[in-house]
């Protein structure tokens, strides 16, 4: 059966409660189109029986017009609809966070995105650091501007792409001087737009590069999108670990409840190129492990301090692009474990709910 035609026909029918099209209303809980069968589940809290019968009849009649042979089942549930997911085309939203600044969130976020993409996942990268966006530089897209596309009267931003990864950053829209003056509602507005008014394609992973610490951006993020989980980045330094605990505690607040997928320890040690076996623990040793143990989450991996990581980033190439065997083995490990623990999280717990502001 022609799925597109069926959806188009149904989209002409209005939800009697909110006036939205019946295919886009949150009351639609299920629309299954099989070989010769259409199953529809609608959930309403105490819908007037006359209105319900009329809606039932309208749907049956409309579908009979185009698929008279098909078996159409419409089931009404008498309950409030389950929370809607405004981003059904994005399977996992992973926020990369830290307490302290400069520990390597953007480096980890960019390399996670590139590495996941190389492994065949579809990935997008959202730079949510409105004060210090790094993604344009790291992907060699400085001074580039996204196109605007009008769809059903809405102006939507088309992400820029590098290494087949759709990317969005405030750096593509505003000059750095303009971005620093964003405050409160305007700041939240930009974050919301980055999720709602950007043409993100179907994605297995949307990686979000957050600014350090906890603040308006993190709060807006959890109020806008169901974050599948957070990856916490730290260096081995005690101050970085302490701040990472504070940042993690925000995600774990009962009212926020975003699971932590694991910890990445960056700048774990330094090995000179001429002596790759020698490890110098410049910032102390074991901070990532300690943090992971404290939070009772896995240590996803360690990334040593490697001069080329920083140099490549400045040239617009995430380190993954360098064919450095040692470096890619560390990154590989982090990526595999991130995928594994994200899948495990999805098996073990319910999807994250968008945080509702209590007033
Ligand atoms: N493993 C590494 N080896 C060498 N240089 C690194 C490594 N990780 C990060 N860097 C460099 O350290 C600097 C800070 O990293 P990055 O920008 O990723 O941190 P951040 O946590 O996103 O910072 P901010 O809090 O400012 O957003 C960058 O210049 C980056 O290239
Ligand atoms: Mg950053």
UniProtKB/TrEMBL annotation:
Q: Where are the transmembrane segments?
A: none
* Binding residues annotated for ATP, in chain numbering: 99-106
GO function term, MF aspect, one: ATP-dependent FeS chaperone activity
Q: Which UniProt keywords apply?
A: ATP-binding, Hydrolase, Iron, Iron-sulfur, Metal-binding, Nucleotide-binding
Q: Identify the stretch annotated as signal peptide in this record.
A: none
BP terms from Gene Ontology: iron-sulfur cluster assembly
Name the InterPro entries for this protein. FSCA_dom_sf, Mrp/NBP35_ATP-bd, NUBPL-like, P-loop_NTPase, YlxH/NBP35
Similarity field: Belongs to the Mrp/NBP35 ATP-binding proteins family.
Q: How does it assemble?
A: Homodimer.
Q: What does this protein do?
A: Binds and transfers iron-sulfur (Fe-S) clusters to target apoproteins. Can hydrolyze ATP.
Full protein name: Iron-sulfur cluster carrier protein
């Amino acid at each position: 059966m022609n799925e597109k035609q069926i959806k188009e026909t149904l989209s002409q029918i209005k939800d009697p409660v909110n006036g939205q099209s019946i295919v886009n209303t949150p009351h639609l809980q299920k629309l299954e189109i099989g070989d010769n069968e259409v199953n529809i589940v609608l959930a309403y809290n105490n819908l007037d029986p006359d209105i319900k019968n009329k809606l039932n009849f309208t749907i049956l009649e409309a579908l009979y017009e185009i698929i008279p042979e098909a078996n159409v089942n419409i089931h009404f549930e008498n309950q409030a609809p389950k929370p809607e997911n405004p981003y059904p085309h994005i399977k996992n939203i992973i926020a990369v966070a830290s307490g302290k600044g400069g520990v390597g969130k953007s480096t980890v976020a960019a390399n996670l995105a590139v590495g996941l993409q190389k492994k065949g996942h579809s990935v997008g990268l959202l730079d949510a650091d409105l004060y210090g966006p790094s993604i344009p530089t790291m992907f060699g897209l400085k001074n580039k501007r996204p196109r605007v596309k009008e769809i059903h009267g809405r102006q939507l931003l088309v992400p820029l792409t590098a290494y087949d990864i759709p990317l969005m950053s405030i750096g593509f829209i505003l000059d750095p001087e303009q971005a620093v003056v964003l405050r409160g509602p305007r700041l939240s507005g930009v974050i919301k737009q980055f999720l709602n008014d950007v043409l993100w394609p179907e994605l297995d992973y949307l990686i979000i590069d957050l600014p350090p610490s906890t603040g308006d951006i993190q709060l807006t993020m959890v109020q806008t999108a169901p974050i599948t989980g957070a990856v916490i980045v730290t260096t081995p330094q005690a101050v970085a670990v302490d701040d990472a605990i504070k940042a993690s505690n925000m995600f774990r607040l009962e009212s926020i409840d975003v699971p932590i997928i694991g910890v990445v320890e960056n700048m774990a040690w330094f090995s000179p190129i001429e002596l790759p076996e020698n490890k110098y623990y410049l910032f102390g040793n074991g901070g990532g492990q300690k943090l992971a143990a404290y939070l009772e989450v896995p240590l996803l991996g360690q990334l040593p301090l490697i001069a080329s990581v920083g140099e490549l980033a400045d040239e617009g190439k995430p380190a993954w692009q360098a064919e450095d065997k040692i470096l890619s083995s560390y990154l590989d490990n982090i990526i595999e474990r991130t995928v594994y623990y994200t899948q495990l999280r999805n098996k073990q717990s319910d999807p994250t709910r968008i945080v509702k502001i209590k007033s």
